[in-house]
Each structure stands twice: as C-alpha cells, then as structure tokens.
Amino acid sequence: MKTVELMALPYAPDALEPVISGATLGFHHGKHLRAYVDNLNKLLEGGPLEGLPLERIVCAAPAGPLFNNAGQVLNHNLYFGQFCTGGSPLAEGALKRRIEAQWGSLDAFKEAFEAAGAGLFGSGWVWLQADAAGELSIAQYAGADNPVAHGFTPVLTFDVWEHAYYLDFQNRRAAYLKALWDIVDWSVVEGRL
Ligand code: MN
Questions:
Q1: Topology (CATH) of 94-191
Q2: Distance 123 CA to ligand 1 centre (A)
Q3: DSSP track, the chain
Q4: Residue 2: is its pLDDT beyond 90?
Q5: Percent residues over pLDDT 70 in the chain
Q6: N or C: more exposed end of the chain, with fewer CB within 10 A?
Q7: What's the CA-to-centroid distance between 93 and ligand 1, angstroms?
Q8: 145 CA from centroid of ligand 1 (Å)
Q9: 77 Cα to the center of ligand 1, angstroms
Q10: pLDDT category of residue 1 using cuts at 50, 70 and 90
C-alpha cells in the first residue's frame, strides 16, 4: 500500500542560511518531519484512510494522533516548500492586489502576520489562508491544526513551534518571524491561490 513519503527539500541543506541554519534544517526536516511521517504511516497501516492523499487524510482523521501526525506532515510540506535562497519577490498579480486591498500594503500585511505569529500561545502555526470566494485572512492554529481542516486554502505558513527556531534564535520568536521574509519564495506562495 502506498505510504506517505518524506518530502525532498527543493534546496540544499545550507541554502537558507543565515535565516535558517543547516543545523536547524537538518533537525527540523531530517528528524522532526521524518518522525511525523513515520508515525503517520504506522497509524495509517491497515486503516480506512491508508493510501488517500494527505489533504483528505487531514480532513477525515479523528482528533488525536492520526490528525496530529497528518497535520504536521502537511504543514511542514507547505512550510519547507515555500522558501528559496534569498527569497523571490511578490510579483504584480492577484495575490499582491488582494493583500493590498485587505491590509493596505505588503509591509502592513507582514506586520500583522508577524504579530499573529508572535501572539500565538505555545506551539502552532500562523497562516495566510483563502476561503472559497478567495477572501484572504490571517489565522492562528494551535498544534497540528491548519486551514485545510477548516475548509480554507493554505497560502503561506510560518511554523512557530520552538523546534523551528530555537537553535538559531533561542527564545526570540519575533526575530525569527521577521527574518523569514528574506527567504519566502512568493512565486510558490502565489501558486497556491
Ligand atoms: Mn516544525
């Protein structure tokens, strides 16, 4: 039966330095994400959700270990998949227009997004999400929860679990969030709309 695979990083382990060090990436992708993938495959084995696409597993999984591991795999795939060396600019287009319509400017959006990430209590994820009509919003989800489980399209996400930033930024979550903009590949983010 088809199992969920550990995503291959679309860049070298040190490609995101100095924002995300090779050491952080090694632990975060090679240990944390790998553990979620392995746990998920064990939990799926022989069950009714085995072999389904990851998004469908997330939507169908009951609260508990299956949802938590499936959610964490999906969230990390989106997180690691949206970065590149030096970042890429947000081009003129639908996403830029909608961000400016909603928040006034890209800088104002970034400020609101950072504040939502810094203000999330404990472990979780801050998201830019879109509803079925394309309306954008910033959302905080705790633990492994995510927009997909609530019927939204995930557009951009920053991981605020401590394992994402503690080696490089220690307790300075706000500094980590601000630094991440330097490596966001906006062409990938826009493609999710
Ligand atoms: Mn993480």
A1: minor pseudopilin epsh fold (3.55.40)
A2: 9
A3: ---PPPPPPSS-TTTTTTTS-HHHHHHIIIIIIHHHHHHHHHHHTTSTTTTS-HHHHHHHPPTTHHHHHHHHHHHHHHHHTTB-TT-B---SSHHHHHHHHHHSSHHHHHHHHHHHHHTS-SSEEEEEEE-TT--EEEEEEETT--GGGGTPEEEEEEE-SGGGTHHHHTT-HHHHHHHHGGGBBHHHHHHT-
A4: no
A5: 99
A6: N
A7: 30
A8: 12
A9: 10
A10: low
Indicate if the alpha-carbon torsion angle 69, 35, 80, 140 is positive or negative: positive
CA of 146 to the centre of ligand 1 (A): 13
Q: Name the pTM for this structure.
A: 0.97
Give me the CATH code for the 22-81 domain, please.
1.10.287.990
C-alpha distances (whole Å) from 190 to each of 67, 128, 185 are: 27, 11, 9
Cα-to-centroid distance, 81 and ligand 1 (Å): 13
Q: Would you kindly state where each structural domain of the chain is located, as residue ranges? A: 22-81, 94-191
CA of 125 to the centre of ligand 1 (A): 9
Please give the distance, rounded to the nearest whole angstrom, from the Cα atom of residue 92 to the centre of ligand 1.
31
pLDDT in tens, 96-146: 999 999 999 999 999 999 999 999 999 999 999 999 999 999 999 999 999
